[in-house]
Amino acid sequence: MAGNLKVIHAADAAAPGGHYSQAVAHGGVVYVSGQLPVRANGEHSADQPFEIQASIALDNLMAILRAARLSPRDLLKVTVYVVGIEHWPAFDRIYAHYLGNHRPARAVVPVPVLHHGYLIEIEAVARGAQEEPS
């Protein structure tokens, strides 16, 4: 396999709750694992309104991008899993606030349930720095 796999960890985002990394980079692409609305200190927010959960999940995504030395403008594709499609307009408004004029490809997927009773999970793919030659 050409190139190295680089694990990305952001101390100011929720730590992985299982056998996975917050993100990995390979071949100039950063793959961000699904981010639930768990605060960086591990505090759960499943009992909070959708808007707060969406903001926490996006905060985690932004922290991971920063740890990879990237910004929201580097996002290529975002996939959002939402319990209750009625939350789509609120999510779109909050998402636009975080991304400004940048509009990466995106899918919003309605799902019946998410882990721990959360209402949202966000995963992403971003362009990253090119790997240095070995």
UniProtKB/TrEMBL annotation:
Pfam families documented for this protein: Ribonuc_L-PSP
Superkingdom of source: Bacteria
Transmembrane stretches in the record are none
List the InterPro entries hit by this protein, alphabetically: RutC-like_sf, YjgF/YER057c/UK114
Name the GO cellular-component terms: cytosol
Provide the GO MF annotations for this entry: deaminase activity
Family from the record = Belongs to the RutC family.
Q: What is this protein called?
A: Endoribonuclease L-PSP
Q: What is the lineage of its organism?
A: Bacteria, Pseudomonadati, Pseudomonadota, Gammaproteobacteria, Pseudomonadales
